Amino acid sequence: MLTKVRGPLVALAEESAVVGVGPFELEVLIPESARRALQSRIGETVALDTVCYLEGGQMSARLTPRLVGFLSSVDREFFDVFCSVDGVGPRKALRAMVRPVRDLARMIQDQKVKELATFPGIGEATAERIVAKLRRKVGKFALIIGPGSEQPGLPGGGDGAAPSDVVADAYAALLSVGHSESQAREAIDRAQAGKKTFKSVADLIEAIYRQSQ
Predict the structure, then answer these.
(1) Separation CA 35–CA 21 (nearest Å)
(2) Is 141 helix (H, G, I), strand (E, B) or coil?
(3) Using CA atoms, how far apart are residues 96 and 182, in angstroms rounded to an integer?
(4) For residue 39, what are the domain limits?
(5) Which residues pair with 53 in a beta bridge?
């Protein structure tokens, strides 16, 4: 699996970027949100987190390998989750990712079906399926922030409770989307300060997201 490409940005088209890697030039499909971020960087060295898939219908005798690239591993992870919805393949997911991942995740989390339905390739029926399947799976993406640097340590509990493995997994999820260690600890502590018991990471992440609004 080719998970990252790094090299000079040779060209940028509407749906793809060409990156020079040694003697080769690789065409990488990218979402609109990435294209906008890269449009002023022609000639500069860029790094894209990538995933490969084979493109071709069931009735086609030809399968074409495609490389898809993102500005971060978190964006790539969201893409994988997004593609898990019935009727949302790689091409449709890329066309729909016209906004930053955090914005898309918040729309899904808040069940904004009508707004999601206006995105390229996403009608109301598909938007409803996206919300139904992903609302409980995109909480950590809705909490994306810039990176920080604090001292390590796991959060403690308040009056509320969550199993230690739930706390540890939620803590890791917050770190993975850019929270500093202290921010992650404080967010989990605030969520646990109430009386609610959290039985899963999704429950705890959703409570943290609600508090952040």
Answers:
(1) 19
(2) helix
(3) 34
(4) 4-70
(5) 66
Q: Do residues 143 and 180 touch, judged by C-beta distance below 8 A? A: no
Residue given tokens 């019935």 in the structure block: 86
CA angle, residues 120, 25, 18, in degrees to nearest 5? 25
CB distance 85 to 133 below 8 Å: yes
- 58 and 92 housed in the same domain: no
Contact status, residue 33 vs residue 59, Cβ threshold 8 Å: no
Q: 109, 139, 169 — which closes off a domain? A: 139
Residues 83 and 123 in one domain: yes
Residue written as token pair 């997201």: 209
> What is the spatial distance between Cα 31 and Cα 75, in angstroms, rounded to a whole number?
10
Please indicate, yes or no, whether residues 55 and 28 belong to a single structural domain of this protein. yes
| Domain end residue (candidates: 44, 70, 96) | 70
Q: How many CA atoms lie within 13 A of 106 on its CB side?
A: 14
For 40-59, the pLDDT digits (tens) are: 999 999 999 999 998 876 66
3-state secondary structure (DSSP) of residue 38: helix
Domain count of the fold of the chain: 3
| pLDDT at position 24 | 94
pTM assigned to the model: 0.75
> In terms of domains, do 164 and 200 share one?
yes
